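ARCHIVE RECORD
Type: protein–small molecule complex
Small molecule: glutamine
Source of inputs: curated submission
Record status: active
Notes field left blank by submitter.
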Amino acid sequence: MPKTEGAATLAAVLAEARRRLAAGDMDDPALEARMIVEHFTGTARKDAIATPERSVSAGEIANIDDAVNRRLAGEPVHRIFGWREFYGLRLKLSPDTLEPRPDTETLVDAVLPFVRETVRREGHCRVLDLGTGTGAIGLAIAAQVPEVIVTATDISAGSLATATGNAARLGLAARFIPRVSDWFSAVDGKFHAIVSNPPYIEAGAIAGLQLEVRLHDPVRALDGGADGLDAYRAIAAGAPEHLDENAIIAVEVGEGQGRDVALIFSEAGFRMASAHRDLAGTERALVFGG
Ligand code: GLN
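STRUCTURE (tokenized, with ligand):
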């Protein structure tokens, strides 16, 4: 059935999107076709199985064609949709924000037990999310634990506006304090936990990243300086005066950076409490105590 015909079925539209993405050499045409078709038809995976004959309107087909074209031109699927899910939360993206990645959920999992324990002991938990981007880490923690109050910083005012909008849509605005800040420059007070997924790509490696990342994630959210570790140095240097007693710092690290990052924090007087692997088995989050 031609793709422009109004009476096209879900199965036919899905097959056509998959065929075009496969012909364009996309990594996972089946998955991305499904995501695009589900998004623009408001269906779920089970619908394609249970009701493959469901009709898809001409308008929906036009949206799907347009999205497939954008994908073929290199735009990541979630940039096309304008949002991505993180820790079960739908987060709006903007050109200023990194697209949150599932790997970063490792960091959230790593700190939640500590956050809950702090709440049991003190009735609340103050969390500082440095370089919040879409708000992903701070909002995920706040959504899981109602006694959490997050201060979220970003050097980009645009990012922070996106994060603040996400907090409002999720009903978390009352516990989400945004601050435009270059790491700690505009941060006051002390926290039970400092969390961050900072930029950690070596400056010289950015040109070699996948096009999806290089062209669509903001460079400022990626660039960690010459050796990729500048942000960790800034965080380790500023953290001591912003930590409560018994506080932790948890950071995401790039592949193979664990040892160097551990050294930076140990030289600043912290001891490593735990290391956490992502679903691919890569060391991804480190937790330090005072
Ligand atoms: N904290 C945000 C995230 O994990 C943004 C991180 C960044 O821009 N480097 O998605």
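CURATOR ANNOTATION: The chain has two domains: 8-73, 86-289.
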